[in-house]
Amino acid sequence: MARQKPLSLYRNIGIIAHIDAGKTTTTERVLYYTGKKHQIVDVHDTKDGKGSTTTDYLEQERKRGITIQSAAVSTEWKGHQINVIDTPGHVDFTIEVNRSLRVLDGAVVVFDGVAGVEPQTETNWRLADQYNVPRMCYVNKMDRIGANFKHAVDGIKNRLGANAVLCQVPLGSHDDFIGMADLITGQGYIWEGHDKDSKWETIPLAEIANHPKVQAFTTSADKEWIGNLAALREETIEKALEMDDEAFDKLLHAGDVETFVKSGDFSLELLKKCIRTGCVQGKLVPIFCGSSYRNKGVQQLLDGVIDYMPFPGENGGIGLVDEDGNVVGEQGVVDEAPARALAFKVINDQFGTLTFCRIYSGVIKKGDTLQNVTRGKKERIGRIVEVQANATKDIDEVRAGDICAFVSMKETETGDSLTDPSSPVLLERMRFPDPVISVAVEPKSRNDIDKLSTALYKMVKADPSLRMEVDKETGQTVLKGMGELHLEITIDRMRTELGVDATMGKPKVSFREAFGQMVEHTYTHKKQSGGSGQFAEVKMIFEPGEPGSGVVFSDEIVGGRVPREYIPAVEHAVTVESRQGQVAGYEVLDFKARLIDGKFHDVDSSALAFEIAGRACFREAQRMSKPKLLEPVMKLEVVTEADYLGDVIGDINRRRGSISEQGQKGTNAFVQGFVPLAEMFGYINFLRSATSGRGTFSMIFDHYEEVPASMVAKLMEKEAK
């Protein structure tokens, strides 16, 4: 079957933001205005469990009023196919944003008009930078008390480093928010009411100041925007035309923007083309505004998605890599090429497995066999479905640029490459964060013992930011994740989705260890018990590395003091042994191991003997180096009323934290700082009590830091309980 729509009419976009900026509300409006649904459900109406928004359909999402897992929906707007992924804003579920951005062509970043740029927005922005995803910004909630468009735009420019181009500015704020001025078309849109089907009046930019609703504005900031509309439009046009050398030359020749706009060389199509060029190349970030809850601005945002977001492949394809992850080529998004797809998400439930894939090239049909190059297995495609959040629709084939799900794949996991068996290649994977917190998990009843490990395996397979292992000493099953909420919801989803009840132990911190100083150490392994013995001697220097440098092994043997065939065994020994340090059995980070000398025996030496010597040398050297215990330190932001700030800061200091910044965010005060994760369990209970329930906080892993010597014994005793 031939392609139904040209690739240029497709948009694969994600909606990303900090928690509570309005992503799900915006997605609901998108589905309503594109005719995909006929009734809007608001997030605050779902907590009774009776209804749900389209993308927040999990029981846990309805109860908490937050997005937990990314959900895909497809819709149409003005002849364009738009595939939308609504992602979570909570830091514990950053993995969902990570893997979504890997496969998307563009992202709409939503901002709370009061709070502006928030911590999780910064994290998501860095992820989008990492995957080279073009972005446009939508400043939402302009109807809220304290909404400040200038504050949000300044944050986008200064904190995120974006080259922002204003496509719209708000007309009014809070109760006075009536619409927006479109600096691209040179028109104002003024809504008649707040209803979802409310119409808007379109008037020329020059006439906005005389409109009765505009003249009723009460705040000087709102009036200032109106007074500057002409200058702002000139600035936007100039910034856009810089993206096109020929257009910019004509502007310079005209002398000023006003003259150029009146000339025959200027057109709306040229202006949009220039902004699109800058956006697709990542040089410009268009800014829109509105209030999704009050049904203002979503249709214009959709127009912006079509005008400025890239179609699949417009800003490049996906990297092809070798087994070590080094990029060796690029796969463009075309039908006329071998089939190549990346699995970016796996969902398990009682009815089977859904493997979400982005198709980068070729055509995949029902019944085809694909090669899972990552795992060296073959997978037969039984069913292909188009996903509408929790509903599916069977389709016969998918093509380059599509996002779909394959049903009941047995071997494929998140990040795996699926390709035509005759042309196997590895596609560039996502990069997943390491878990920072762990809990012991036990079944609630003896009947669930066997089911528990199966259920945990399914959850871990679906979420790469989870890890499961069995503690060798206690025999307990340990689940590691990104935060208390992450682990709590995982256990709850096992109950609701897989029918397995489990209890969670007290959270434990994932500490790390490091060498305290440089150590040179020689270890001789000698064993003689009749027959051939074992002999190996290694002389090594271990030295601390820079944070983030990882484990570096250096072979500095000269003159054949250790035969070449035994050196990999020593490197393997150091790598394996570094996973369990000598302070408290935690992984050892960031050091360089230099093998400088050694001895061997013609008969008794072997790779095994050198591996044993390497392991023992590492253990003894780490003990001799005055090793350090490292703990994860979180970047914390608390937003609350100014009256409570003193109590919040005092508490952060008591938790061994440090303050890095404080100031105003809208009508509230905020404080930012760094606090050890070990001191942060149950923090929400303190914050609710200290701020009468008005305070909110967000927390993200920042770095590892040495535990003060006086605290090591106390922390280890606390962890052992």
TrEMBL record:
Signal peptide location: none
Locations listed in the record: Cytoplasm
GO (cellular component) term, any one: cytoplasm
Highest taxon, organism lineage: Bacteria
Domain Tr-type G: 8-313
Keyword set includes Nucleotide-binding: yes
Amino-acid positions noted as binding GTP in the UniProt annotation, renumbered to this chain: 17-24, 86-90, 140-143
Keywords: Cytoplasm, Elongation factor, GTP-binding, Nucleotide-binding, Protein biosynthesis
Pfam family, one: EFG_IV
Gene Ontology BP term (one): ribosome disassembly
GO MF term (any one): translation elongation factor activity
Keyword Cytoplasm found: yes
HAMAP family according to UniProt: EF_G_EF_2_B
Family, per entry: Belongs to the TRAFAC class translation factor GTPase superfamily. Classic translation factor GTPase family. EF-G/EF-2 subfamily.
Role this protein plays: Catalyzes the GTP-dependent ribosomal translocation step during translation elongation. During this step, the ribosome changes from the pre-translocational (PRE) to the post-translocational (POST) state as the newly formed A-site-bound peptidyl-tRNA and P-site-bound deacylated tRNA move to the P and E sites, respectively. Catalyzes the coordinated movement of the two tRNA molecules, the mRNA and conformational changes in the ribosome.
Protein name: Elongation factor G
Organism: Dyella dinghuensis
